[in-house]
Amino acid sequence: MRLSKLFIPVLAFASAAGLSLVAAGFAVTAVERGTETEVRRALDARGYTWAEVTADGLQVLLEGTAPDEATRFSVKSTVGTVVDAARILDGMEVPPADGLAPPRFSAEILRNDGGISIIGLIPAGSGRSTLVSQLVDLAGPDSVADLLEVAKYDIPDGWTEAMDYAVEALKLLPRAKISVAAGEVSITAISGSEEAKARLEEQLGRNAPPGLRLALDIAAPRPVITPFTLRFLLDEDGASFNACSAESEESRDRILAAARKAGLTGSADCVIGMGVPSPNWARAAELSIGALAELGAGSVTIANADITLAAAEGTPNARFDHVVGELESALPRVFALHAVLPVPEAQDADGVPEFTATLSPEGQVQLRGRLSDAALRQVVDSYARARFGSANVHSAARVVADLPADWPVRVLAGLEALSYLQRGAVTVTPENLELRGMSFRKDAPAEIARFLSAKLGEAETYDLDISYEEPPAPKDQPIPPELCEAQLVSAQSETKITFEPGSATIAADSADTMDRIAEVLARCGPVRLEIQGHTDSQGRETMNQNLSQARAQSVLNELRARRIVTSTFTAKGYGESNPIADNGTEEGREANRRIEFKLIQPTSPQAEADGEQPEDAQAQDAPETDDEAADGTSEDAQETSE
Q1: What are 111-155's pLDDT values in tens digits?
Q2: What is Dmax (Cα atoms) for the chain?
Q3: Sorting pLDDT into bands at 50, 70 and 90, what band is 10?
Q4: Of 190, 219, 248, which marks where a domain is finished?
Q5: CATH of the domain at 71
Q6: Do residues 599 and 579 both lie within one domain?
Q7: Which of 24, 400, 567, 642 has its C-alpha lying 20 to 30 A from 459's C-alpha?
Q8: Predicted pLDDT of residue 618
Q9: Is 476 left (phi over 0), alpha (psi -120 to 50) or beta?
Q10: Residue 395 and residue 242: Cα distance in Å, rounded?
């Protein structure tokens, strides 16, 4: 009885313990499943479907093969947003790497008045010390900031040529940024004028080695105009500008619109530059041109903030006073108006005093008329000889008393203005200075107007009648690259370059053709040119490729033997890849066996950004070949195209 009484409580406690264990097991399982579900949901949302999740109590085991270490870390971070990071067991694997790829080597060179700085990653063994020494030679000691890093990898193809070209280009560019990569150079620079920009682009393009991808971005800043000048005339021949300056395109459009309203016809333009004396320049120009149109004839000259309005002789006084009064009231502050109404004067027995200087097309100058004293005559004669050459000046001027006090200034200003022309004449009178002639420069009238406005002052008038003619072409001028390419094609129009069968040796009957090509290249000057070799499809493709390369190199060697400068030429074989005729016929195969000459054109930064290729992409990307390629003809050449 006593045993049974003890057994019942023990059995009750044991049953309760068992039930508790079972309940705890179900609870743990529920927690583990809930954890797995939440973690899986978070991983699926991020696209990590390859990861396996196993919950073991409070711990979460992650398994699977991650693509890389970055993805592995991202998976752990994602799971850490669901459970505590201390509960995560990382069992994921990452496949072994195949080996580190070489980095992309590049360098940035910046040059300005303070010196040269270079930064980037370059390959070891590429001559860092030599490069820095070259930059020191350009900028001077203590003016080069060397921020280069070096990596021990092989020098990539095209790196040495690109860096050498960048250093040579830097010699032409006192202010520039040059980006260098293997086979690529990008240049951003600034030039002093549009003419200087064109010269730089031409020289940089010609100096670039064959196969180099070159991007040029050379800006020509607006010129500084001093004095800032506008001169508008209205007479019986119509309306015209001698000079027109504007600070912006909007200002230019407003000035030209006012001029057309006043009677201007035909094409006209204003030079956009810096140096405007007031933000109200366009407004002052509009008002001044409108006032001249209301007068009906005359001229208006604006030099900086000084405005000279000269009416035509015979303009009614009432109209002149009304127009001048309205203009003075409307002009913006800063601008000062000087109005001139010519009054006819009685001439003395000797007539109106006058000084003239004429310049012939041959450069001969004759001085005639009146000068105020002997000292002025000597000064004028010396000045003319200094300007036009001692042997080109003939003086027949005479000394006359009672000339205006400003006569010396007007005479010397007239001679200086005459020197802007190729031929012409200047006439100086007490009331006016008249310059007529021809110049090879389109901007000559504007420059002369600015000069005379500064020298004569606001109260003086002058007349300009200057025509423009195209300058004659210089003797022995190289023909343009595009024409050079066309003439090279024409040189092979009758008989093309041929070779011995299955060989890279130029046939003897092609000597005359090579002579014609050499004559064309001698007139071309330095151009970037690719000599392309092509074959038909007979024989093995590899053999055709090698033969075309050897034949192109043979042509290059023949040109060198004829003393043609070939430093900017490259030889490139294309094998049978670019046929121009059907290889199924003998005539087609004969046409496909050929040598072509193609220009290598530089690319612009915009074309690079748009992913455009040059007109001849093959020529653009062609690598430079060694002279020894000519000796690489295969022994199996008989199997290739003849």
Answers
A1: 998 899 999 999 988 889 999 999 999 988 889 999 999 988 889
A2: 172
A3: low
A4: 219
A5: 3.30.1340.30
A6: yes
A7: 400
A8: 44
A9: left
A10: 30
Q: Would you say residue 320 lies in a domain?
A: yes
**486 and 629 inside one domain:** yes
DSSP state of 86: G
Q: Residue 423 sits in a domain of what CATH number?
A: 3.40.1520.20
CB neighbours of 538 closer than 8 A, spacing ≥ 6? 544, 583, 589, 640, 641, 642
Q: How far is the C-alpha of 371 from the C-alpha of 412, rounded, in Å?
A: 11
Tokens coding 398 = 């005479």
Residues 376 and 316 in one domain: no
Strands 355-359 and 271-272: unpaired
Q: Residue 347's pLDDT is what?
A: 46
Tokens 């860092």 belong to residue: 128
Q: What pairing do the DSSP bridges indicate for beta strands 336-340 and 306-311? A: parallel
Name the DSSP class of 476. Answer: T
**Same domain as 617, residue 585:** yes
Q: Does residue 498 share a domain with residue 452?
A: no
Q: Does 237 lie in the same domain as 186?
A: no
**Of 340, 375, 391, which residue sits at a domain end?**
340
CB 584 within 8 A of CB 565: no
CB of 460 closer than 8 Å to CB of 310? no
φ/ψ of 119, rounded to 5, equals: -140, 145
Tell me which amino acid residue 107 is. A
- In one-letter notation, the amino acid at residue 35 is T
Q: Is residue 280 part of a domain?
A: yes
**What is the Cα–Cα distance from 568 to 572, expressed in whole angstroms?**
13
Distance separating alpha carbons of residues 290 and 282, to the nearest angstrom: 12
Question: Do the beta carbons of residue 118 and residue 109 sit within 8 Å?
Answer: yes
553 and 504 Cβ atoms separated by less than 8 Å: yes
**3-class DSSP string for 131-167:** HHHHHHHHHCCCCEEEEEEEECCCCCCCHHHHHHHHH
pLDDT band at 241 (very low <50, low <70, confident <90, very high): very high
d(Cα 551, Cα 256) in Å, to the nearest integer? 60
108 or 462, which is more confident? 108
Please count the structural domains in the chain: 5
Q: Which of 173, 174, 169, 154 is nearest to 212 (CA)?
A: 169
Which pair of tokens denotes residue 305? 């903030």
Residue indicated by tokens 């180099």: 212
Sheet containing 336-340: give its strands across: 238-243, 229-235, 298-303, 306-311, 336-340
Give the strand pairing for 365-371 and 355-359.
antiparallel
Phi, psi of 189 (to 5 degrees): -150, 175
Are residues 510 and 517 in contact, defined by beta-carbon separation less than 8 angstroms? no
| pTM of the full structure | 0.52
Q: Which domain holds residue 49?
A: 24-93
pLDDT digits (tens, 9 = 90+) for 528-548: 899 999 999 898 899 999 999
For residues 275 and 251, what is the distance between their CA atoms, to the nearest angstrom? 14
Distance (Å, rounded) from C-alpha 558 to C-alpha 531? 12
Alpha-carbon separation of residue 540 from 258, 532, 590, 642 (angstroms): 74, 19, 17, 12
Rounded Cα gap, residues 410 and 340, in angstroms: 18
Residues 212 and 256 in one domain: no
How many other CB atoms sit within 10 Å of the CB of residue 82?
Answer: 18
Phi-psi region at 231: left, alpha or beta (left = phi > 0; alpha = psi -120 to 50): beta
Residue 551 lies in a domain: yes
Instruction: Name the one residue in this structure whose structure tokens are 């070489």.
Output: 102
| pLDDT per residue as tens digits for the range 334-385 | 999 998 888 665 444 456 889 999 999 889 999 998 998 888 889 999 999 9
